[in-house]
């Protein structure tokens, strides 16, 4: 069964094919990202982007594209495709007859009697992209001409024709090395077969990225083509091209390529696709392992995104407890400032308790060891919310946390327009206080169990826990409407129906009574739940925006005002299974199967950051999201566990 395959009629229809992207990434932090017809439509697209100096927070695009031209009997057939303004030139997509990404992505071209395939992949642990060209069928020999389009710029930027670019080339074994600017790594282009490189530096000006234009961003750049390679191929021949920051042995390129293809294998199930995505979202640099929030433009090592996605990308993906602890250890070491002193996502440090609870539920026998290793860190996080420690949030005598900084969004709902937050939520936030109460209860119970009632921590924080419990429900519960208010400020409850109230039901130590949980979940089910995640705001609210399209302002207004989040499906299913048990399996499968229908949209074989709140719930944002992938792995784990219980 082919999971990720497109036919000729889909590929030549550019209104269809240019909206579908392929993303390849590896553990070194490199990526290759373009559309399924190999036409770049975003500034983030290109054949090889790498971390600059090993810094995952700054990636640079070295090779934008590699154009192929087949020359047979004096006739040229250019297989590439670029947009200049509104003009497409050349229009190589007309030769594409098949695309398959179940293993390494393969594009098949047909020109008369000639059949030509291009297979590309990233080396799993180095900054290198490998492309295999095969002349599968042809009436005679063919010349393959390859033209590299060089960018050498930050992935968030655009480059333009200039006099500073170093257009010189350095001959290396089997190819040529380029380096346009100081401070960048060399780009080594090498070929496994004999080739001739002709130096002829030319700037191709006015290359236009249609997706950036549609979104209202700068969208035009100039790229340097330093020359071209020519390789003679006969029917049945194949060659491998390497683009790498390191110089390779051309004689080993085919062997290396074949070995990587064999290790990739073909996907056989939806679980395989989830695990494949989980793997590329955990880069390692300098011995540090991080979680990349999303490809291709989100950052690695973010506190909230790492804590949200860590259990799913490790425990529920393949049960790797060692990797779970390694990522968590590296995160704690790197995020001392946000964990213990200040952060604009005030709930994020408190989610450490939830991560540890996931771990203990997954391996109950390690509870004591987990508390011994991470207890001091969690206690330090809790202590940091004491009055006077953090400027952005303070503990009130009622045991609840009040978050407020003028014109700052102090939660995960942190979109801004012209410097002003769309959802400021200043005051008592329902989700922050649910995480707070859960962290207090968990830490006090663990400390009591493994240290004792005489612990100074237990003595200090037990009254705070009790006060939080006594005041949470009466602060947030709206009995007339039957749900929890999203936040409470000096003017009272803000009764927006948002998914933040879900966490008050989800956390293992819930601050609300059991008899109101069903009412809350019913409201969430009626107004927020879709087959593509949980809406961030009820459609009944006048601020609701159901489609993530238009200008930057339009999109920011929709980002947390109606768009759905896949990451919220995990806690939602967790609560439903606790309430209904294995009888909820069918509904859970119904709510999650749609994400797999969409694998041929947006990011092919990947899981998007967000979806429209309105049907048909089209995907948007980062094409491969760590939080979304992790949530679906968690959902899969919950479904399978409850299926076993049903048997």
Keywords:
alpha+beta, elongated, 28% strand, nine-stranded antiparallel sheet
Q: What's this, in brief?
A:
The protein is built from 19 helices and 37 strands.
What is the rounded distance between the termini?
Answer: 28 Å
Unreliable stretches covering 5 or more consecutive residues: none
Number of strands: 37
Strand order of the largest sheet: 1-9-10-11-12-19-16-15-14
Mean model confidence by pLDDT: 95
SS-based class:
alpha+beta
Globular, elongated, flat, extended or rod-shaped: what is the shape? elongated
Quaternary status: single chain
Strand content: 25-35%
The helical percent reads 25-40%
Largest beta-sheet details: 9 strands, antiparallel
Q: Helical element count?
A: 19
Structure description:
There is one protein chain. This protein is of the alpha+beta class and 647 residues long. The radius of gyration is 27 Å and the shape is elongated. It contains 19 helices and 37 strands. 33% of the residues lie in helices and 28% in strands. The strands form eleven sheets. The protein has a nine-stranded antiparallel β-sheet. Strands 2, 3, 4, 5, 6, 13, 17 and 18 form an eight-stranded antiparallel β-sheet that branches. It has a three-stranded antiparallel β-sheet with strand order 27-30-31.
């Amino acid at each position: 069964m082919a999971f990720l395959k497109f036919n000729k009629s889909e590929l030549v229809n550019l209104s269809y094919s240019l909206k579908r992207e392929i993303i390849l990434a590896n553990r070194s932090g490199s990526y290759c990202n373009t559309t399924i017809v190999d036409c770049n439509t975003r500034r983030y697209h290109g054949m090889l982007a790498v971390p600059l100096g090993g810094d995952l927070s700054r990636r640079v695009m070295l090779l934008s594209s590699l154009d192929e031209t087949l020359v047979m009997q004096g006739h040229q057939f250019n297989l590439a495709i670029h947009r200049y303004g509104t003009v497409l030139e050349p229009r190589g997509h007309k030769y594409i007859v098949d695309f398959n990404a179940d293993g390494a992505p393969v594009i098949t071209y047909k020109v008369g009697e000639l059949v030509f395939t291009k297979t590309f992949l990233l080396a799993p642990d180095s900054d290198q992209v490998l492309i295999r060209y095969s002349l599968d069928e042809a009436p005679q020999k063919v010349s393959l001409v390859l033209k590299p389009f060089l960018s050498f710029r930050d992935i968030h930027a655009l480059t333009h024709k200039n006099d500073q670019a170093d257009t010189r080339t350095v001959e290396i074994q089997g190819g040529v090395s380029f380096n346009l600017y100081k401070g960048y790594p060399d780009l080594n282009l090498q070929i496994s077969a004999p080739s001739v490189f002709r130096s002829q530096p030319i700037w191709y000006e006015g290359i236009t990225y249609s997706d950036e234009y549609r979104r209202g961003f700068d969208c035009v750049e100039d790229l340097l083509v330093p020359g071209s390679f020519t390789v003679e191929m006969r029917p049945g021949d194949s060659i491998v091209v390497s683009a790498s920051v390191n110089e390779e042995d051309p004689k080993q390129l085919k062997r290396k390529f074949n070995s990587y293809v064999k290790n990739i294998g073909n996907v056989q199930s939806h679980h395989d696709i989830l695990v494949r995505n989980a793997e590329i979202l955990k880069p390692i640099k300098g011995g540090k392992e991080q979680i990349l929030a999303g490809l291709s433009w989100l950052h690695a090592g973010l506190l909230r995104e790492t804590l949200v996605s860590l259990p799913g990308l490790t425990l529920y993906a393949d049960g790797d407890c060692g990797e779970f602890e390694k990522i968590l250890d590296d995160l704690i070491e790197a995020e001392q400032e946000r964990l213990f002193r200040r952060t604009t996502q005030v709930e994020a440090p408190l989610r450490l308790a939830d991560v540890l609870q996931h771990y203990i539920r997954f391996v109950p026998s390690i509870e004591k060891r987990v508390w011994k290793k991470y207890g001091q860190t969690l206690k330090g996080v809790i202590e940091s919310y004491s009055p006077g420690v953090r400027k952005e949030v303070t503990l009130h005598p009622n045991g609840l946390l009040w978050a407020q900084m003028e014109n700052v969004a102090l939660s995960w709902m942190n979109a801004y327009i012209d410097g002003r937050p769309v959802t400021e939520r200043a005051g008592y936030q329902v989700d922050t206080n649910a995480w707070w109460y859960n962290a207090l209860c968990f830490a006090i119970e663990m400390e009591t169990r493994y240290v004792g009632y005489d612990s100074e921590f237990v003595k200090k924080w037990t009254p705070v826990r009790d006060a939080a419990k006594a005041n949470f429900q009466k602060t947030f519960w709206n009995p007339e409407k039957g749900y929890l208010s999203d936040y409470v400020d000096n003017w009272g409850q803000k009764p927006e129906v948002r998914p933040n109230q879900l966490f008050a039901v989800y956390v293992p130590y819930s601050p609300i009574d059991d008899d109101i949980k069903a009412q809350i979940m019913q409201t969430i089910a009626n107004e927020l739940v879709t087959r593509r995640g949980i809406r961030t705001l009820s459609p009944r609210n006048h601020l609701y925006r159901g489609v993530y399209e238009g200008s930057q302002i339009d999109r920011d207004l929709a980002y947390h005002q109606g768009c759905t989040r896949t990451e919220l499906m995990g806690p939602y299913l967790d609560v439903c299974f606790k309430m209904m048990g294995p009888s909820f399996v069918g509904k859970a499968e119904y709510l999650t199967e749609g994400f797999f229908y969409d694998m041929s949209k947006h990011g092919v074989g990947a899981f998007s950051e967000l979806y429209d709140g309105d049907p048909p719930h089209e995907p948007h944002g980062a094409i491969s999201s760590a939080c979304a992938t992790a949530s679906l792995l968690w959902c899969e784990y919950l479904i399978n566990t409850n299926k076993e219980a049903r048997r």
